[in-house]
Amino acid sequence: MQVTETLNAGLKREIQVVVPAQDMEARLLERLNDARGKVRINGFRPGKVPMQHLRKMYGKSMMAEVVNDILSKSTSSILSDRGEKAAMQPEVKMTEDEKEAEKILAGQADFEFSIAYEVIPAIEIQDVSGISITREVYDVPEAEIDEQAMRIAESARTFTAKDGAAESGDRVTMDYVGKVDGEAFEGGTDTGANLVLGSGQFIPGFEDQLVGVKAGDGKTIEVTFPAEYQAAHLAGKAATFDVKVTEVAKAEPIELNDDLAKNLGLESVERLREIIKGQLENQFGSVTRQKVKRQLLDALDAAYTFEAPARLVTAEFNNIWLQVTRDLEQAGKSFADEDTTEEDARAEYQRLAERRVRLGLVLAEIGDKAGVQVSDEEMQRALFEFVRRYPGQEQEVYDFYRKNPGALAELRAPIFEEKVVDHLLGQISVTDKKVSKEELMADDEAEKSETAEAAPEKEKAPKKKAAPKKKAAKAEDAETAE
């Protein structure tokens, strides 16, 4: 096998491979000899089939197997010999001329093909001990725990039918039909619907017009859908709702006590508070973690400025762009509605894709050098958590992931990345800062749009806070260099 480098420009490589016809012939004869003692052909005793007859019957198919074997094994061996890692699956090209192909399969011509790929750039791991970040911490006060407990208690509140007019806080049970331009619209009809006045569950203005109604009343309510309403065909439209009130009920008072907790299936109100406190701490802790991670990624992004493999960047950009355009289409909006242009958005997301790929490679290299591993137990736990999202299809989803290494890699990637982040956090300076909930939850547009994490999250388009949402980098990002 003759291997010749024909292109070495930046990260791009092209290799020309020539397997002489005599080598192809030798490989074919080896296969034919192996098959000679196994095949059963009428008129010949086992092992006595003439080689020429065997070649006539199976020569082309076995030579095709030789070709496939060379292609499957040579790429990895060539890269290994060169000490290179391909950023993506190398592109293999061979002759498309039928006559040339026939000669190769007949053992009458050299087998020539080329391999084109981009290499993972050499990444020199840098000292991170000089990185300093601030960890914003919000301590959940008892008052907020009680406030959340009261919200939960609302779900267990009881109502008693009354004869009088509906007031704020009362529950109105009704049938209604919504219309736009006199025509009923999809999703605008319901029967036996319950609405607590003042809860803000319906379109602005709807609940206000129900104040004063009584059981048995009929009423036509006039509203206008918000301009940002999720159903684009209704956004900004004037509508009427023909309402028939079937019941008005008064809310019974609620009190945080053990009886309430027992109605919720818990042994005491203190246990209820413990659960709520844990949930709130996890919620705010997750935000803290994301902000810490973004600061770390920003520092790494500033420290590593190597060229990212173009094919990886293109693949990542395409993933982002597909989600952005899909979200715009579903919202019935254009780039102009988001105070940007398609050209500017493309440029912004291209920069984001480059950042993600670069950081993915950096994290993979750091994790590899640090010996970060994802255990079988962690993978099993992640798979079970994922499968639980598909009730009724658990076994089907489980089998799919167990049989598809690529799909399993998508589950492994965010675990691996978080472990690498933990490794790095143990090496840098982290200063805790007590903040208010408002400070912790403040929406930092730069953080949202610049992050390059492997774990899926929602992000926003550039230039405007009400921009379309899109998925963050695919889980493969952190795996690219492995």
TrEMBL record:
Gene3D superfamilies: 3.10.50.40, Trigger factor ribosome-binding domain, Trigger factor, C-terminal domain. GO terms for biological process: 'de novo' cotranslational protein folding; cell division; protein transport; protein unfolding. Residues 435-482 are annotated as: Disordered. It is found in: Cytoplasm. Its main location: cytoplasm. Keywords: Cell cycle, Cell division, Chaperone, Cytoplasm, Isomerase, Rotamase. It catalyses: [protein]-peptidylproline (omega=180) = [protein]-peptidylproline (omega=0). Its EC number is 5.2.1.8. Coiled coil: none annotated. Residues 461-472 have a biased composition (Basic residues). It is an enzyme of class 5 (isomerase). Residues 169-270 form the PPIase FKBP-type domain. One of its GO terms (cellular component) is cytoplasm. The keyword Cell cycle applies. PROSITE patterns: FKBP_PPIASE (PS50059). GO terms for molecular function: peptidyl-prolyl cis-trans isomerase activity; protein folding chaperone; ribosome binding. Residues 448-460, 473-482 have a biased composition (Basic and acidic residues). Consists of 3 domains; the N-terminus binds the ribosome, the middle domain has PPIase activity, while the C-terminus has intrinsic chaperone activity on its own. Involved in protein export. Acts as a chaperone by maintaining the newly synthesized protein in an open conformation. Functions as a peptidyl-prolyl cis-trans isomerase. Belongs to the FKBP-type PPIase family. Tig subfamily. This is Trigger factor. It comes from Aquibium carbonis.
